[in-house]
Amino acid sequence: MRFSILPVAVCVAAACQGGSSPIQPDDLASLRVVEGVRYEADTRVMESFPVQLATAVTITNTTSARITLHFRDGCIVTLRAYQGGQQVWDQRTLILCTQALVDAVIEPGRSSVFEARTSAAEILAGGLPDGEYQLEAVLEPSGEVVRLGAGTVPLAIPR
Predict the structure, then answer these.
(1) CA 7 to CA 29: how far, in whole Å?
(2) Of all residues in the chain, what percent are helix, strand and coil, respectively (each to 5)?
(3) Which one, of 73, 82, 76, lies nearest residue 123 by Cα?
(4) Residue 54 belongs to a domain with what CATH number?
(5) Within a domain: 138
(6) Highest-confidence segment of 3-12, 25-34, 92-101
(7) What is the pLDDT of residues 60-103, one digit of tens each?
(8) Distance of alpha carbon 130 from alpha carbon 6, whole angstroms
(9) Residue 113 domain flag
(10) What is the number of domains present in the chain?
(11) Structure-derived torsion over alpha carbons of residues 18, 58, 92, 12, reported in degrees to the nearest 10
(12) Is the Cβ–Cβ distance between 120 and 50 less than 8 Å?
């Protein structure tokens, strides 16, 4: 099943100081345009127990020139989870990323899609309670940090 869900947060590194400040309703968005590059996040929830999540970020070149985005490693998109406006989980702290630089070349008017996957079991494994969590997709193209709301999902695991 594929559907759009409530977006979480968007900003560029200079506008986002620290990960512990609460998310404000005015900050919520799943779409961000930075220097002619459009980033949009969408999360698919696979109906299983525990729930499996796939967050796709579509990067579109809205300029008239070819762009090259440089990513510092193989983890182009990673996820964070928030509850009550506070960050409670960060995928980047749990996964191993290839240390090779990754370049994404996108022609004018074209798009590329990058995906991050996780599950309720991974997010809640550290003792977090079942409940509603806001997801955030994080990318670091060419030295910038782009944070995108990736939806609100109910998560539960067998206990």
Answers:
(1) 5
(2) 10, 50, 45
(3) 82
(4) 2.60.40.2360
(5) yes
(6) 92-101
(7) 999 999 999 999 999 999 999 999 999 999 999 988 888 888 99
(8) 18
(9) yes
(10) 1
(11) -20
(12) yes
Whether 119 maps to a domain, the answer reads yes
Name, in order, each residue with C-beta under 8 angstroms of 122's C-beta and a sequence gap of 6 or more. 91, 94
Indicate the pTM of the whole model. Answer: 0.80
Q: Rounded to the nearest 5 degrees, what angle is found at the Cα of 37, between the Cα atoms of 32 and 38?
A: 40
For residue 150 the two structure tokens come to 């990736």
Alpha-carbon gap, residue 55 to 64, rounded angstroms: 28
Residue 15 reports pLDDT greater than 70: no
Q: Which domain holds residue 141?
A: 11-155
Give the residue from 69, 78, 121 showing the smallest Cα distance to 97.
78
Domain presence at residue 4 = no
At position 122, the amino acid (one-letter code) is: E
Q: How far is CA 113 from CA 54, 57, 106, 123, 127, in A?
A: 12, 6, 11, 23, 32
Contact (CB, 8 A) for 117 and 137: no
Instruction: For residue 91, give the nearest of 83, 101, 81 by alpha carbon.
Output: 81
